[in-house]
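Table S2 (text version). Query chain:
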Amino acid sequence: MTKFWIISDVAETSYELLGKARELLGDQEGIITVYLIGNETTGQEAIGYGADLVKLMELPPDTTWEQYAPVLVQEAQASQPEMILVGATRRGKDLAAQLAALLDSPCVTECKSIEYDDGKVILKRIIYGGLAEKIIECCQFPVIATVASRTFEKWTAKDASREGTIEKLDLPAGVNVQVVERRSKPQEVVNIKDASIVVGVGRGFSEQDELKMAEELAKVLGGEVACSRPIAEDLHWLPEDRYIGISGQIIKPNVYIAAGISGQVQHVYGIRDAKTIIAIDKNENAPIFQVADYYIVGDLKEVLPALTEAVKEVKAANKG
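Corresponding structure-token output:
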């Protein structure tokens, strides 16, 4: 019997990984176990998305979540899962590395694709900042793979009437890391990963006040503003939560508008899965044009206000 494990400290990511696990399982007989932070309601939600067994892992107040590793190793040795999918958060990556070392198992990070082929697991991941794709074949089990949020889709056949088992997983005794204090990182209310339309701004904007043009366009489109790394980390014009790239946010909006962003691979990695990419830049040779579905060569100060007015006109006409 095929056994899949899903481990995530973010419930939404576990639901996405469940969709992939169900796809891989297909018509085979199997069991999918989900380990996540949450309560009974969260657990029931996971069952609705395809989990057979849910084990709740609380975020301990006095130690780190990764201290569950010894318990998970014992459970893995007993149940022998074939594949362990781990949400690629900071906690998840740490835990995945520990499990791989303790179980002497292969660990493939930041997977973009996972498939079976003739008894082997074929995994793909992006390397060299998005310039190349690496294909890895694994025939040693369990295979541990970390997967970023929004990589896979949730199981569309969610069934709220599905039945499963929900249990609580206890921490091992004698943990060796002590947490003395936790401080919440200030975050904006808006999560750009949830936006269907995103307007990205880059170094093509010479002054912070010019960002208002992008903000106005995003507002009339019902979208959100994001940025390239220099805007957030060097100039501090926008919060780091809005930075898109390899070490920032990975987004999959319906429409992404890149305004004044040259298109370095670090940024393209974060927007490559957008359904439609529209680029605006005065440099007709800007690299961003190579990945754009549509592009405009022109001055941001002229193009953005014109687009905003055009959208307003269309909306007014539709109301009429």
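Notes on Table S2: The two ends are 60 Å apart (CA to CA). The mean pLDDT is 93.
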